[in-house]
């Protein structure tokens, strides 16, 4: 990874790195694994949550399922227990189809799998695609705490497909639009024959364990089309899960650039990647959990501080919550606020909502504006039409749990929550640069 490289080189490098990251991350567990690998390559040490927090200044990463926190306490100007944090937050989960606990059924000579829709998926985008499977299994393991171990699994074989109904059997789709019932119309087929197969047995084989040792699974589908640059100039990147792995990747890059920066910093740079944003963030590892505040406190305690130091650190901290932003859609321009057009490749996007669907206030906005200014990239501002409901992010929850000044921002994307979204190639380089400047001021 190079810093200060000419823009064209940097743009290509960020785009290629992002595509690799997207392809490595079909599930939140894999997204965290890929992020941890990038960090480990640059000297970050993984810490177990059940172990002691390292007291030596250093670079550390900790994960909780599909969530991850990384920080660098060795780049601080004058380290004190109450040193504040600069945090970039993002999320690792994306809408998809997830396999039910008792998924096997057959009909008309087809072997089918029962699925639940995870998050606000554009379900039509899952039709007629070659689908793989990935996730995590819990396995019997006498050497693990509680006798339960975990491992990731993944197949990029096209084992599943959700087939669409032919036009001849329902011509109303042309006049009334496609009506999809989540229970009825989204089950993937994964084989032929009337004999019921056992998904559990098949998954055990994939995970490399005996069927009786497979105790549970978190299994989900992914589109097998790889991430790639598209457009006559390669000016766009098409992929699944850009929301929000594009921010996760930019955040990890930013932290790696912050630790490589020549001058020390007045705060502890930190990145947090949360699972479960698409379903409300209430879990042991979502943005409403104790994951972030607990680890901020542990960093303070490990530096010799107490509760007072922790609260002082929070009061001085700033959190930047990154999530993708709607670019103005050329075919639906009327759906966007006309005075706040968001241009693809027009730069990172500040997100504002006075009803606090986004946490941005003037102080948070100023921190992000300064970061864009320092990075030399343009900044756009998103606000939703007043007659449309606004989406939300991990920003408001994080700000409520920590009391830190918070800003919501993103990078322009089209087709948000489709299995195939697009973003701007130039935007991704600008995004990574702005986040790096946020974590490591010149
Ligand atoms: Zn998102």
Structural write-up:
It is a single chain. By secondary structure, the protein is of the alpha/beta class. It has two domains: 7-94 and 240-439, Zn peptidases (Aminopeptidase, 3-Layer(aba) Sandwich); 96-223, Aminopeptidase i, Domain 2, CATH 2.30.250.10. It has ten helices and 20 strands. The chain has helices spanning 7-24, 28-41, 172-176, 199-207, 242-260, 291-302, 307-315, 362-375, 395-402, 425-439, and strands at residues 45-46, 59-64, 67-72, 85-91, 96-107, 110-118, 131-140, 148-160, 189-192, 214-223, 228-230, 236-239, 268-274, 318-322, 325-326, 349-351, 380-382, 405-410, 412-414, 421-424. The chain has a nine-stranded mixed β-sheet, with helices on both faces. Strand 7 and strand 8 form a beta hairpin. The longest helix is centred in the middle third of the chain and has 19 residues, at 242-260. The chain is globular and about 70 Å long. The model has no long low-confidence stretch (mean pLDDT 94). The site of zinc ion has 6 residues, from helix 5.
Beta-strand content: 25-35%
Can you say what the CATH homologous superfamily of the largest domain is? Zn peptidases
> What general outline do the C-alpha atoms trace?
globular
Small molecules bound: zinc ion
